[in-house]
Amino acid sequence: MNSKAKLLTLGIVTLAVSYVTVGTVIAQAKLTNKSKLSINGVGSVQVGMTVYQAAKAAGTRLVGDAPNNSCYYVKPQNKPKNLLFMVTEGRISRVDVRQNTQITTLKGAKIGDTEARIKSLYPGQIQVTPHKYVEGGHYLTFIPKDRADQNYRVVFETDGKRVTQFRSGKLPEVEYVEGCS
């Protein structure tokens, strides 16, 4: 094979690999029920993004309350369902997972898990406090050890036995019991 043919073959292979790689990255960037919740976002949507940036990262329109300067919620137009983004000062500040048993944290915690399971997934990092509205219920708050993450939390709400919903985000918004109310 001459050098022009080798160069052409190399170019075609490089282009094909780039196409597959970019396609895979784009596919992974979409927000789905397989997206994982971290202390500072879910999937490709991160705390600190504007709603426009979050929608672009999620690969879907974010719809919801009319924007205002203090606090409001948006959610993916179609899927995943029961996933909400709190917006404060024009930026995503918190992610709420409600009635969605498919979205999990990076460690696999999800709605329906027992309080014991949450404590075992995050040994020595769960602070337990009484639930404000559910008699016998708790807030299980994951407090990260890493200094860089000290302004973030994951809060699991329970009925006293099992996780009923959870959220992550930055302080103080992640600890607002009543959301934007």
Mean pLDDT: 88
Number of helices: 3
Give the radius of gyration.
Answer: 20 Å
Secondary structure class reads alpha+beta
The sequence of SSEs as H and E is: HEEEHEEEEEHEEEE
How many beta strands in the DSSP annotation? 12
Q: Assess the beta-strand content as a share of residues.
A: 25-35%
Ranges where pLDDT stays below 50 over 5 or more residues in a row are 7-28
Assign an overall shape: globular
Largest sheet: 8 strands, antiparallel
Overview of the molecule:
Helices cover 23% and strands 31% of the residues. It is α+β, with helices and mostly antiparallel strands and 181 residues long. Strands 4-5-6-7-12-11-10-9 form an 8-stranded antiparallel beta sheet. It has a 4-stranded mixed beta sheet with strand order 3-2-1-8. A hairpin with a 2-residue loop joins strand 1 and strand 2. The protein is globular and about 65 Å long. The chain starts with a helix and ends in an 11-residue tail after the last strand. Mean pLDDT is 88; it is low at 7-28.
Q: Which SSEs are present, and which pair or pack?
A:
Elements: H1 3-29, E1 36-38, E2 41-42, E3 45-46, H2 51-58, E4 62-64, E5 71-76, E6 83-88, E7 91-98, E8 104-105, H3 115-121, E9 126-130, E10 138-142, E11 152-158, E12 163-170
Parallel strand pairs: 1-8
Antiparallel strand pairs: 1-2, 2-3, 4-5, 5-6, 6-7, 7-12, 9-10, 10-11, 11-12
Care to give the gist of this entry?
This protein is of the alpha+beta class and 181 residues long. 23% of the residues lie in helices and 31% in strands.
